[in-house]
Batch of 2 targets.
Target 1
Amino acid sequence: QQQVKQSPQSLIVQKGGIPIINCAYENTAFDYFPWYQQFPGKGPALLIAIRPDVSEKKEGRFTISFNKSAKQFSLHIMDSQPGDSATYFCAARGAHSGGGADGLTFGKGTHLIIQP
Amino acid sequence: DSGVTQTPKHLITATGQRVTLRCSPRSGDLSVYWYQQSLDQGLQFLIQYYNGEERAKGNILERFSAQQFPDLHSELNLSSLELGDSALYFCASSPTGIFGNTIYFGEGSWLTVV
């Protein structure tokens, strides 16, 4: 049972465009939703995170939009750059999330390429 | 650099063999998590230890086991290896068991079973 569904699997965007990656969840007990960025040969690193009492969070060029009623959240990258090319994972944390007592359940990842 | 150290970085072994992956968490972090990453399954949670005790289990096979030692480092033991066990194994750590804390990942151990 996949508790966090992520789409698309891959995405190609021109430099300066706004890639959008979407995630949907089912477990209403989730209460923390981070996004991780992974470059080839590296481990995932926390990019930005949101709690469900907030509808939007911005950090630099990265924005999370959160729709609690729809149980969906998305990552937007403004003014995207070739250096943003990476794999992005959404995740969710909460009791019985399947990620450990307080661990994370991850989406399957989106391979993003920003073309110059 | 996340502060989580994993060894070895790369490992090639034959089917049926046993290997041990080692993880040193960030200084002061009590929780250690193991994840398996493969192309088709993404990041799969295997097991979590907190201050030496097993805290939660995910999709960990019976052929796999882990432990966390008094100095908080952890080892993941993989035995009777099969071709399908080839994957990138990540260790991650977080400060406590309370949710809301960030999980920090190491750079992973690439396991190739031939």
Target 2
Amino acid sequence: EVQLLQSGGGLVQPGGSLRLSCAASGFTFSNYAMNWVRQAPGKGPEWVSVINGGGDRIFYAASVKGRFTISRDNSKNTLSLQMNSLRAEDTATYYCAKDWGVYRFFDYWGQGTLVAVSS
Amino acid sequence: DTQMTQSPSTLSASVGDRVTITCRASQSINSWLAWYQQKPGKAPKLLIYKASSLESGVPSRFSGSGSGTEFTLTISSLQPDDFATYYCQQYNSNPWTFGPGTTVEIK
């Protein structure tokens, strides 16, 4: 059974940093691209970042580029998102999500973790 | 960027009703469209991909159609478990974008 178990998140002041993690199991982690998707309260989801299976191809949404860093450790089946210079508009529930395969839609999601940026 | 819109934003319906949700893309996305269902406090759940392909385990009362810029999600006979918010997502091009959602409420 595929499972994505998230940790991290919480309340942080503007300009602060936070690190999210996602522990994967139930599939061959290194074979799949992994994503972070966020959802602000009452809004639709917003794709944030993707990293390919080998960890050498990465894309970011324009809204986070230069501030967020995605990474993965295939030896530990973990995905991470380092978030720096956080802003109020980064407040959202963050999900890790597995690519279905060749195409970029998402067949499994983590349980979500709330990131609140406020003074 | 490809902008996604959905209509209606809210839909009131009764158990047994046939329900149709529309999703439009700002440019052609061929058939590279997925639909998700989300319940409060939960992650989205994949229902349909490639506009009309049903994800494994999803009830056959869900169906999708369309190509290019206009797509529909149809629930043939609404069940109590179907009251939720539905999102479309295009995966034709980076950045991969979602619609704002359609909430199906109990009438």
